[in-house]
Design goal:
The complex is a heterotrimer. Chain A is of the alpha+beta class. Chain A is about 40% helix and about 15% strand. In chain A, the strands form five sheets. Chain A has a five-stranded parallel beta sheet, sandwiched between helices. Chain A has a five-stranded antiparallel beta sheet with strand order 11-15-14-12-13. Chain A has a four-stranded antiparallel beta sheet with strand order 16-10-18-19. Chain B has one domain: Up-down Bundle (3 helical TM bundles of succinate and fumarate reductases), CATH 1.20.1300. Chain C is an alpha+beta fold. In chain C, about 35% of the residues lie in helices and about 15% in strands. Chain C has a five-stranded mixed beta sheet. In chain C, strands 6-7 form a two-stranded antiparallel ribbon. Classes of the chains: A alpha+beta, B mainly alpha, C alpha+beta. Chains in contact: A-C, B-C. The interface between A and C is large, with 83 and 81 residues. The complex binds flavin-adenine dinucleotide, protoporphyrin IX containing FE (HEM), iron/sulfur cluster and FE2/S2 (inorganic) cluster. The site of flavin-adenine dinucleotide has 45 residues of chain A, from helix 3, helix 6, strand 6, helix 7 and strand 15. Chain B: Keywords: Membrane, Transmembrane, Transmembrane helix. Chain B: This is Succinate dehydrogenase. Chain A: GO terms for molecular function: succinate dehydrogenase (quinone) activity. Chain A: InterPro entries: FAD-dep_OxRdtase_2_FAD-bd, FAD/NAD-bd_sf, Fum_R/Succ_DH_flav-like_C_sf, Fum_Rdtase/Succ_DH_flav-like_C, SdhA/FrdA/AprA, Succ_DH/Fum_Rdt_flav_su, Succ_DH/fumarate_Rdtase_cat_sf.
Chain lengths: ~650, ~230, ~260
């Protein structure tokens, strides 16, 4: 097992990025014009990188599978984006954001990367506001903030419950500006099917035009993947239907190591599953935990309507177990606590797999404040609730509407029923400090890489990371590589490596049609999802994981012998797209279980039942597992583990406590 | 070089022409209606003929008449072009359209309502405008003014003419129920405080003006006005 | 467990590609649960079609929570179906009755050609944005965000305009297939912010020119777009755009 070199710059933590910035090799403007960069993905990471690189003068090609770059999955992010601006004067700082993120990640993230993230976070907000992103403001005209889990300061910037949408539209408009100027060539409804590696360097991709089915070869001096996370390996998740691992997985098979695949985030507040027909799960933003209190009845199987259960018969279990952070504990902690209550028989709703998220107390509190503002003294409860509801509506209106739309219940009247659901994947392609994977010239950014969140991501930090990577990090660090590539001429597309990559993609496509099986792609996807959720989900153990690996291997065989892909290859065929994605998910699922089995400790989102404290908290093993697992693909769905040791020089490693 | 560019040929420019000419026609209608309402003095048309005489001889009104006719023509031509262009913007039609769910029928039928108005205008203009401007009004009244009133009374003895006028005024009413406020929207005159007033005024204007116009032929036909 | 008791007749537009003609095809579906979303009902249909060896119906969708703007079905004569303020993916079967016949067609407009079945090409919207729907600020050029206070009312109004998801329901429902609501939402968002002022009049000119070039129809202020927009984008934005357009043509000295 080889040591991996993360290329972390020398020097003091706080100086690393500054120093690197001023010593980074540059590419002169004339040379930039002849250097081509491929960006796969148009989410926050992809769009911001593509726009910025084009602004700098590179020739950029950008790909996404949606019909418009604006529809990338980042659009769905609700709650907010963190930045160490300290506008609230509550003691925030770059160091504190860094500290919170490392601690939130259960000490499994790389210090240098996280510090850099915290450093550039402030610039992100500046850039977005300059682009016209309408972030929430106070009456004085200055930006507003809210709190998110795992922190005790207010550093989250937001735009109602549509922060991701607004940030993405900002990046999208920057991207469209470059497209309009002819500096970015945009390929929508295109799916990357493989990376082309020539002499050990990433030199292009094979993409399928999803409308005509044509396979296309594209050359690039470097290839950047901003293809998002792989939560859909669980079938049901809060991710968009099209989110997939294919781009990252193909890169993995071409030599890029996969980092920490087992670290998945289960988000505590999602709308519970309502039946077998369910196609995806809907998140209720973490911001709701600012004002919602989570509880279950104290009595097992209490079937009364929640409004009939008196205060003293409610168990506000987060406030009880974690008095310091209360309802704002990090996600992994909140999710496990919900599961613990439901497993113990205290769950609510028809399925008993739900807990209440109740806004009543805070609605009343807000109402009282409002009444005061309106000079109503000693307001009655009705008045308080009425006025308070207005405040709640202004803060979370769209989320409340969404909840009502899906469940048919009015959350202004009844508490929401929520349950944890798969939401985010901390794992991803292993990258060094420059965000380069183990394949030279191949970069990964945003949720597609593993870099900044350790074993658990704090709320509002993914948007921050995606934009940090795309706007501020990659455009600079890529210079280190591209400055050595100025002599490389565009490689002709009939180069054997392109021909071979295209042929291998074609053979996979042909194989799908040749099977002519009996079961739809979704059938296999659902099965995979169930195995993953049951055995590699919120709680894992060695026995379950071993079984899961065997089951997934069997599933893979079944898939390749019994899947039915209707239609043809040379037409718009979403079933074919799904087949390719699910084939990759099945292989990834196996690796996730292998990784989870290898990691004999609990940390963050990875909870091994064998390793817990007496109070049921995650029990890390820093002695043996303070490393990043980076898996190398060895062919035929076998993998080899490499380790990147994590060194904590600026933070004292401790057991995470939110009590 | 700075120029007006596509100020009038762009989609918004075309609308601008509709809006300006529409508002101009609306203001003309107010004047027209006022003069015509003079028949309700019921003095055998003397007051009305006085008004008509003033309109026919005042140089400013005469000048405006040219503008009016040009405006009307512009409104009609542009309106019909828009109808065809807009139809072309959806070459394949829907099998099912539930228009009532989201808009008023008359808002969706401006072309149709306008065409009814156009047919009416042809009849109307040849009845009165052509007569008064070109072929000449045959008689004079007691004040020695051209007796346009007599032409009118004669014309409104024919039932189908009366029916056509009433129908046309119903069309006008609906055309304006949409058109009045719409013109303000087109010109960008939208304001949280004023728009509701404009809308309310538009409704009253459309109804009152159409009813006034419509009862004229009816009243004459019925013999209330002599 | 999920199977419900609704039986439905669907009439769905099937069209193999942009080059072929299409037609409405009838399908029967049974045991649909009222808790299903409209798209989940389509999932059930497609699952049945695949198992019968037929080709599934192709439709655009991604987030399934009303924010990406991908889903786009014209249901019983209305874009996104009978409920106000929701996208197709947020529509649930409880909005229909047992025994209903539901006609589903793609968005129809010259500027949105059908790609296959219920999927249309909406890239015209992207080209309109590329023509000027941005603020020209390169990465790294920004000043501190709080150096530019913006009155809350103004910021909120800009945000409301920015909430557009680019779904195209406004075009689909407009009898003229006009894109004014979409275009005005972007213009209006930027026109209300101080950051948007330097390019304000250029922007409206180039975006309107691109909108026209794409073949959208002309607005006649019927208001159908506002009524059907899942995000409640207001007609005020169109008035604001008209105003800016006229200023740009008759007041501003810059022409493009
Ligand atoms: C419901 C929800 C709410 C969230 N809320 C928050 C929040 O409040 N705050 C926060 O910080 N984070 C939040 N997150 C997480 C955050 O939204 C994501 O982690 C982040 O947006 C990912 O951005 P990205 O650019 O890496 O990828 P994405 O936005 O997922 O973009 C992926 C891009 O890659 C393209 N792509 C993928 N595969 C291929 C392929 N094979 N070929 C071609 N193109 C491909 C896609 O077309 C797309 O353009 C939320 C996530 C969800 C699911
Ligand atoms: C006295 C007669 C008329 C008056 C007062 C009148 C007034 C108006 C007004 C105010 C508008 C709204 C403009 C806007 O929205 O900006 C309008 C629109 C329209 N008018 Fe007329 N009109 C008259 C006659 C006609 C005639 C004869 C036609 C013949 C075709 C016509 C066709 C239209 C059409 C098609 C529109 C809709 C165009 C649009 O809104 O873009 N109108 N009219
Ligand atoms: S304005 Fe409304 S209907 Fe039109 S694209 Fe935007 S969100 Fe959709
Ligand atoms: S699928 Fe995203 S809005 Fe409907």
């Amino acid at each position: 097992m080889a040591e991996l070199n993360a290329n972390i710059p020398e020097g003091d933590l706080m100086e690393k990025w500054t120093k690197l910035k001023s010593s980074m090799p540059l590419v002169n403007p004339a040379n930039k014009r002849s250097i081509e960069v491929i960006v796969v993905g148009s989410g926050l990471a992809g769009a911001s990188a593509a726009a910025t690189l084009a602004e700098m003068g590179y020739k950029v090609k950008c790909f996404c599978f949606q019909d418009s770059p604006r529809r990338a999955h980042s659009i769905a992010a609700q709650g907010g984006i963190n930045a160490a601006k300290n506008y609230q004067n509550d003691g925030d700082s770059t160091y504190r954001l860094f500290y919170d993120t490392i601690k939130g990640g259960d000490y499994r993230a790389r210090e240098a990367n996280v510090y850099r993230l915290a450093e550039v976070s402030a610039n992100i907000i500046d850039q977005c506001v300059a682009q016209g992103v309408p972030l929430a403001r106070e009456y004085g005209g200055l930006l507003d903030n809210r709190s998110f889990g795992g922190t005790q300061v207010q550093r989250t910037f937001y735009a109602a419950g549509q922060t991701g949408q607004q940030l993405l539209l900002g990046a999208y408009s920057a991207l469209e500006r470059q497209i309009g100027m002819g500096k970015v060539e945009m390929f929508t409804r295109h799916e990357m099917m493989d990376v082309v590696v020539i002499d050990g360097k990433a030199r292009g991709i094979i993409a399928r035009n999803l409308i005509t089915g044509e396979l296309e070869r594209h050359f690039g001096h470097a290839v950047l993947l901003g293809s998002g996370g792989y939560g859909n390996v669980f079938y049901l998740s809060t991710n968009a239907m099209g989110s997939n691992v294919t781009a990252a997985w193909k890169a993995h098979k071409k030599g890029a190591f996969f980092g920490n695949p087992c670290y998945t985030q289960i988000h505590p507040t999602c709308i519970p599953v309502s039946g077998d027909h369910q196609s995806k799960l809907t998140l209720m933003s973490e911001s709701l935990r600012n004002d919602g209190r989570i509880w279950v009845p104290k009595k097992k199987g209490d079937d009364r309507s929640p409004i009939d259960i008196p205060e003293e018969e409610r168990d506000y279990y987060l406030e009880r177990r974690y008095p310091a952070f209360g309802n704002l504990v990090p996600r992994d902690v909140a999710s496990r606590a919900a599961k613990e209550r439901c497993d113990a028989g205290y769950g609510v709703g028809k399925s008993k797999l739900a807990v209440y998220l109740d806004f009543k107390a805070n609605t009343e509190r807000y109402g009282r404040i409002e009444a005061n503002k309106h000079n109503i003294h000693n307001p009655d409860k009705e008045t308080c609730m009425r006025l308070g509801r207005e405040v709640i509506k202004e803060k979370y209106g769209n989320l409340f509407d969404m909840y009502k739309q899906i469940t048919g219940e009015d959350p202004y009247e009844l508490p929401m029923r929520i349950y944890p659901a798969v939401h985010y994947t901390m794992g991803g392609l292993w990258v060094d400090y420059n965000l380069m994977t183990t394949v030279p010239g191949l970069y990964a950014m945003g949720e597609a890489n593993f870099s900044d969140h350790g074993a658990n991501r704090l709320g509002a930090s993914a948007l921050m990371q995606g934009l940090a990577d795309g706007y501020f990090v990659i455009p600079l660090t890529i210079g280190a590589y591209l400055s050595k590539e100025i002599a490389t001429k565009a490689i002709p597309l009939d180069h054997p490596a392109f021909v071979e990559a295209e042929a291998s993609v074609k053979s996979i496509v042909d194989k799908f049609f040749a099977i002519k099986g009996t079961k739809s792609v979704d059938h296999f996807h659902k099965k995979l999802g169930k195995i993953m959720w049951d055995k590699c989900g919120m709680a894992r153990n060695a026995k379950g994981l071993t079984e899961a690996i065997a089951e997934i291997q069997q599933l893979r065989k079944d898939f390749w012998s019994d899947v039915r892909v209707p239609g043809e290859a040379n037409e718009f065929n979403p079933e074919l797209e799904k087949a390719g994605r699910v084939a990759d998910f099945i292989e990834l699922g196996e690796l996730m279980c292998i990784d989870a089995l290898n990691r004999n400790e609990s940390c963050g989102g990875h909870f091994r039942e064998e390793y817990q404290t007496e109070e049921g908290e995650a029990l890390r093993d820093d002695e043996n597992y303070a490393y990043v697992s980076a898996w190398e693909y060895k062919g035929d769905v076998t993998f080899n583990l490499h380790k990147e040791e994590l060194k904590f020089e600026n933070i004292k490693v401790a057991q995470r406590s939110y009590k | 070089m700075a120029s007006f560019g596509n100020a009038f040929s762009s989609s918004i420019g075309k609308k601008l022409i509709m809006g300006i000419t529409g508002l101009f026609l609306i203001s003309f209608l107010a004047v027209h209606c006022f003069i015509n309402a003079l028949i309700f003095v019921n003095d055998g048309g003397l007051t009305f003929n006085l008004g008509a005489h003033f309109m026919a001889t005042n140089w400013f009104i005469r000048a405006m008449e040219v503008v009016l006719m040009a405006g009307l023509l512009a409104h009609i031509i542009q309106g019909l072009r828009l109808v065809f262009q807009n139809q072309a913007a959806r070459p394949v039609k829907y099998a099912v359209v539930d228009g009532a769910a989201n808009s008023k029928w008359y808002s969706r039928s401006m072309g149709l309502l306008g065409t009814i108005l156009l047919i009416f205008l042809i009849v109307h203009l040849s009845d009165f405008w052509v007569v008064s401007r070109f072929t000449g009004i045959p008689t004079v009244d007691a004040n020695d003014h051209e007796n346009l009133f007599a032409v009118m009374v004669a014309r409104f003895q024919t039932p189908w003419v009366v029916i056509l006028y009433v129908l046309a005024m119903a069309s006008l009413c609906y055309h304006l129920l949409h058109g009045f406020a719409s013109a303000f929207q087109t010109l960008g005159w939208n304001h949280k405080k004023y728009t509701p007033l404009i809308k309310a005024f538009g409704v009253w204007y459309s109804i009152i003006i159409s009813i006034l116009f419509a009862i004229m032929p009816v009243a004459i036909y019925a013999g209330f006005i002599k | 467990m999920s199977t419900g008791n609704m039986n439905l007749t669907l009439k769905i537009w099937r069209q193999k590609s942009s080059k072929t003609n299409g037609k409405l095809v009838d399908y029967k579906l049974s045991e649909i649960s009222p808790d299903m979303s409209f798209l989940e009902m389509f999932d059930v249909l497609n699952e049945e079609l695949i198992s019968k060896g037929d080709e599934p119906v192709v439709f655009d969708h991604d987030c399934r929570e009303g924010i990406c703007g991908a889903c786009s079905m014209y249901i019983n004569g209305r874009p996104h179906g009978p409920k106000e303020g929701v996208t197709t993916c947020q529509l649930h079967m409880r909005s229909f009755k047992d025994g209903d016949t539901i006609v589903v067609e793609p968005w129809r407009a010259k500027a949105f050609p059908v790609i296959k079945d219920l999927t249309v090409d909406r890239t015209a919207f992207d080209r309109v944005i590329a023509a000027g729907g941005f603020i020209s600020v390169n990465t790294g050029n920004a000043q501190d965000a709080n150096n530019l206070p913006i009155p809350k009312v103004q910021a909120d109004s800009a945000f409301e305009a920015a909430a557009c998801i680019g779904c195209g329901a406004c075009v689909a429902t407009c009898k003229n297939a006009s894109a004014m609501l979409f275009v005005s939402a972007k213009i209006s968002q930027l026109a209300q912010l101080p950051q948007g002022q330097p390019e304000r009049y250029r922007r409206v000119q180039s975006m309107v020119a691109q909108m026209d070039a794409e073949g959208f129809g002309n607005c006649t202020n019927t208001g159908a777009c506002e009524a059907e927009c899942p995000k409640g984008i207001s007609l005020e934005n169109i008035a604001r755009m008209n105003r800016d357009f006229l200023s740009s043509k008759f007041v501003s000295e810059e022409s493009i």
